[in-house]
Design goal:
Pfam families: Beta-lactamase. The protein has twelve helices and twelve strands. The protein is of the alpha+beta class and about 350 residues long. Strand 7 and strand 8 form a beta hairpin.
């Protein structure tokens, strides 16, 4: 598999599709995107069993184009936590977070709920911090942090959610909180004793062969672990394949054994169709042709970008899109998956 994967990366030119796998369904998708039926799509890549079997670029997209991943970055931050655990910087997801930031003493609003925040709370979007990106009135609303110079100080000083409590699973209620993911990145820095950029580069990017990337940063240079990391489409695909291989890359273990299974387990129910793991979304997609339902875990970002992993088919799909802050941006990516990609790569249909 490793040999086939490497050859696919080296030999597949822009716009080339494996002849054995190209079919009317994928041709129809290419045509639909090209004529503008799907807006602001920049790339679609499909990898099956370690081989790139479809690769097309549209609009601004090209192989060396740095896609703004927006919140898809969060899943990479989850992998960075796993890498830090693998290297011994954390003992596990139950490690408390606030003691790592002793150099920021005093931390405001430091009540018992805040003192008890653990990595798992931040990873599952269920911490006590009063933060909800779907509610602009909350103190931790993402844009309020962006207005500040020191984002770490902002995150640490947030008050806790009134009435917050843990349920029978030991977690609080789900509230989408980018500030919490940013704080996770800073917790990694404190634990490993180096910048998030340097740690992720050594622990993940260099082993994966990723050399071209750009972090979104605060005015004082803090890496935004919660969004905005820029990567090429092929490099995004590597993270999907790393997840599919349980954290092993070309025979080298980068993440703890079982980390991906724990990360992609539904820890919080978000809606009737979506759950949340450790910074990964979990859901189901159906084939419009066969009606078969395929479980997936996936990275997702504002604009419609998605990296979806389908373990039942050995499939990794990358869709990058720039339809930012637009209703339906995620649905059109789902439509590409369900109307074209899954029917073309149904279980048993491709060998």
């Amino acid at each position: 598999m490793v040999r086939r994967f490497i050859s696919g990366l080296l030999l597949l030119a822009v716009g080339i599709v494996s002849p054995a796998l190209a079919n009317g369904t994928m041709d129809e998708m290419t045509a639909a995107i090209s004529r503008g039926d799907f807006k602001d799509i920049t790339s679609v890549l499909v990898m099956k069993n370690g081989d790139i079997v479809y690769e097309r670029y549209f609009g601004n997209g090209k192989p060396d184009y740095l896609n703004n991943t927006r919140s898809a970055t969060k899943s990479i931050t989850s992998m960075a936590v796993g890498a830090a655990i693998e290297q011994g910087a954390f003992t596990g997801v139950d490690d408390p977070v606030m003691p790592l930031f002793h150099v920021y003493d005093p931390i405001k609003n430091l009540n018992d709920d805040k003192k008890d925040i653990r990595l798992k709370d931040l990873l599952t979007m269920s911490s006590a911090l009063d933060c909800n990106d779907n509610d602009q009135t909350t103190p931790g609303y993402e844009d309020k942090m962006h207005e500040k110079q020191d984002w770490t100080r902002f995150a640490l000083d947030l008050p806790t959610m009134p009435g917050w409590s843990r349920d029978g699973m030991g977690l609080g209620p789900f509230r989408y909180c980018t500030v919490g993911t940013f704080l996770t990145g800073q917790a990694i820095e404190m634990a490993v004793g180096q910048s998030l950029d340097d740690f992720v580069d050594a622990a993940l990017f260099t082993p994966l062969g990723i050399s071209k990337y750009e972090w979104y940063r605060s005015p004082i240079g803090e890496e935004q672990a919660g969004g905005g990391l820029e990567l090429t489409s092929r490099d995004l695909m590597k993270f999907g394949q790393l997840a599919l291989e349980d954290g092993v890359w070309h025979g080298r273990r980068l993440l703890p054994e079982g980390w991906i299974a724990a990360s992609t387990k539904p820890h919080r129910k978000v809606s009737e169709t979506q759950s949340y793991g450790y910074q990964w979304w979990i859901g189901e997609f159906f084939s419009a042709t066969t009606g078969l339902v395929h479980k997936s875990y996936y990275m997702a970002g504002n604009g419609g970008s998605k990296v979806a992993v389908f373990e039942d088919m050995g499939l990794v799909v990358v869709i990058t899109a720039e339809r930012y802050n637009t209703p339906g941006m995620h649905q059109q990516s789902n439509d590409l998956l369900q109307r074209y990609i899954l029917p073309a790569y149904e279980v048993g249909a491709v060998h």
